[in-house]
Amino acid sequence: MYGDERGTVSEGPLCGPWEMNKHEGSSEHGMIHAARPYMRTLMGPDRSAVWLMKDLPKAGTTPAGFELFLGDGEFLRLSVGLMYDPTGKLAQVSAIREDSRGFDQEGAWTSSDESLQVLDAVPKDFIDALSHTTTSSLQVSVPGPVSTTQVGSEIDPKTFKFNNVEAGVDKIFQLPDNIIVVCPTKLPSSSDDGAFWVAAGWKKDDSLISSIEAQYANFHMEKMVHTKFTT
Questions:
Q1: How many other C-beta atoms can be found within 10 angstroms of the C-beta atom of residue 218?
Q2: What Rg, from alpha-carbon coordinates, does the chain have?
Q3: How far is CA 133 from each of CA 73, 137, 224, rounded to the nearest angstrom?
Q4: Consecutive sets of 10 residues in the chain, 231 residues long: mean pLDDT of each?
């Protein structure tokens, strides 16, 4: 809910309802939402997904936003929202926690609303996940979309964002309920190569860690990667 022209869930230009079909809403870069025709949606397992700008704005031109979704394949799902201001600087990191059964379930999400924390390093749980069994790793490349799935195999550490945080470029945030976010502090400028990479991870419990990553190359959407680990 917003107190400005964006309106609320039930009233305003973005509240819907929306009529969408695969013919008008499909594209080689993912599903198009009528509310934001410059955004694309790619979907993965366990209700994971990304909602991304097809073309990455250059710093100093326009605001930019990204949303990353992770779920447990049952009742729980979370989304992480990242906003960059018109100068290209990171302006907001937020998380929404959902439970399809309602919010009075024991042992689901906590009631914690404490502010996000900035970390010096990725928590050991996520780094240690590299030595665990990868139950599934789905990569969706665009344009296409073309998907590749690996099951029961280890991933290449060089392609796992949580193992490749760039000092002075990326920020690491911890949010309630073991949600971790890695993202650059600013958008690339016109003099850069247009590479950009954001990631969210979630440790539901000791038996399940999952992550979702979105990558850009040359200021265009390139791929989504969803990875699920078990201990």
A1: 12
A2: 17
A3: 18, 11, 20
A4: 59 72 87 88 94 92 95 94 95 93 79 80 80 79 89 70 89 94 94 93 86 95 90 65
Sign, Cα dihedral of 201, 202, 208, 212: negative
Phi, psi dihedral angles at 44 (to 5 degrees): -130, -170
Asked if 204 contacts 72 with a C-beta cutoff of 8 angstroms, the reply is yes
d(CA 219, CA 62): 14
- Residue identified by tokens 């949010």 is 175
CA distance 28 to 48: 19
pTM of the model: 0.89
